[in-house]
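Title: Prediction job returns without error message
Component: structure pipeline
Severity: low
Priority: P3
Assignee: unassigned

Description:
Job completed but the reporter wants confirmation the result is attached to the right record. Sequence as submitted:
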Amino acid sequence: MQENPNRINAYTEFCKEFDIPEIYSCMKMLYSIAESGTGNVNQQIQELLMQMNEMEAKAEEIENEHIKFKMEKIFFYPIAAVCLKMSFDMSFGMILMISSFQSVFIGG
């Protein structure tokens, strides 16, 4: 970066450790803004910041969806276990009741 500050490599290698495509895209955009020197730089940077805010909001929404899914799993497993146990208990009770009725009516 210090040897060739005006080359695109100085911009793209700045955050290459993070391996995030959005950062790479933004750094290329900053390079083009710096090199062109034309147009409204303030508006271009403002649009860049708006895009970054939209990406952050989308990432937060995805994270919230993951948290919501985990919470649903936390509530689903105990309910499923209770339903299975109740089904087993009800089936066993019905079998016991039918066998006791048969012994009363057939035996008596």
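Comment from assignee: result matches the submitted record. The chain has a mean pLDDT of 80.
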